[in-house]
Amino acid sequence: xxxxxxxxxxxxxxxxxxxxxxxxxxxxxxxxxxxxxxxxxxxxxxxxxxxxxxxxxxxxxxxxxxxxxxxxxxxxxxxxxxxxxxxxxxxxxxxxxxxxxxxxxxxxxxxxxxxxxxxxxxxxxxxxxxxxxxxxxxxxxxxxxxxxxxxxxxxxxxxxxxxxxxxxxxxxxxxxxxxxxxxxxxxxxxxxxxxxxxxxxxxxxxxxxxxxxxxxxxxxxxxxxxxxxxxxxxxxxxxxxxxxxxxxxxxxxxxxxxxxxxxxxxxxxxxxxxxxxxxxxxxxxxxxxxxxxxxxxxxxxxxxxxxxxxxxxxxxxxxxxxxxxxxxxxxxxxxxxxxxxxxxxxxxxxxxxxxxxxxxxxxxxxxxxxxxxxxxxxxxxxxxxxxxxxxxxxxxxxxxxxxxxxxxxxxxxxxxxxxxxxxxxxxxxxxxxxxxxxxxxxxxxxxxxxxxxxxxxxxxxxxxxxxxxxxxxxxxxx
Length: 478
Fold this sequence. Notes:
This protein is an alpha/beta fold. The protein has two domains: 5-362, Alkaline Phosphatase, subunit A, CATH 3.40.720; 375-475, Arylsulfatase, C-terminal domain. It has 14 helices and 14 strands. The strands form three sheets. The protein has an eight-stranded mixed beta sheet with strand order 4-3-6-1-8-9-2-10, with helices on both faces. Strands 11-12-13-14 form a four-stranded antiparallel beta sheet, covered by helices on one side. α2 packs parallel to α10 and α6 packs parallel to α8. The radius of gyration is 22 Å and the shape is globular.
């Protein structure tokens, strides 16, 4: 089969329930919906970790953060401040397969640019700000405020907005590369809808704040839940926010999602106008989600709720993917996308990669018999310091292991908004909880997670034999 061109579109911090194709009745995403109608939508895609830099590094390395060791955002902690180009196995594989590589937008992988990783062209978020200054178009101060969740109107017209600038440059690279005969790989990564949401009209006013109904879990009292969640409310100054306060933020968040959707529509339309769409594999996803008022919390760190970890993932590969279909296979998101891209390009997926190629599913086949029936995700900390958590989610339950607080256990079928934590008093769910703890230990062992040690295994399973097999004092020379 001929190598396809590849366009990977990544938003930042977009909830699954903001997409019409995933059931949103409010937020308008006609172009994402159209892509889903012409391709395949995954309903159980989970991000390996709910934080920008670690998960973006996972897409390049093909491994969980515990393996590539960029545990928090670039330059925030000294464990490993950035991904080394030598750890990037995706870009070299694509380049070796004959692809021309271009990167547009948010990077957040290293203090070194994508051109140090083999990309021929790079247009950064900083280039956007320089361009705005050159054309004497002021940038609102709110665009640089990350200490709290804020929103503002961008006085510039749409064509001078950040999403428009990025899409203009993506189109430019697509045109340049397509004329040279080789297949192209273009990343188009947006800053939004990550806050601060600075949005031009008419998108800033597209959603009436007063009309937005609260999330069903917006008033979660966090009773019987880990203390870190209440602490995060105070860190982000949301502990006394009313739904009316959140409505302003959610309206702008929706507005930026619709703006990005509108601008990506131009890129997809350009592919169609030039006939490139027939030979281009398009992947549209996000790095992770956002609570933005769910559980009274903003942002994503130190919680592993569904709003953060279950993400939209849409793939269109003309002549290959079934049109308008959905797959409920469990996908480890950027880990599986890593393997898929190398496979599609004609390369060999590294044997130590933590993900698997989605190609059988993209081709309309059933997943292999040994395909995971659950998702395993991790978190290591963020701006406020290191903090270890692990998540195992399947059709029935979500189990979250906190190394230094009480655990969480939610009945996904009967409590989809994750309001009632069953971990401390599981009752009839006890056997299910114990089973998932053992399955989590299995994931830890298979992926060489550093939490796979005799103390963790003993705590999770109370099984002396399993604990004795795990790394620890008994298996280490002192």
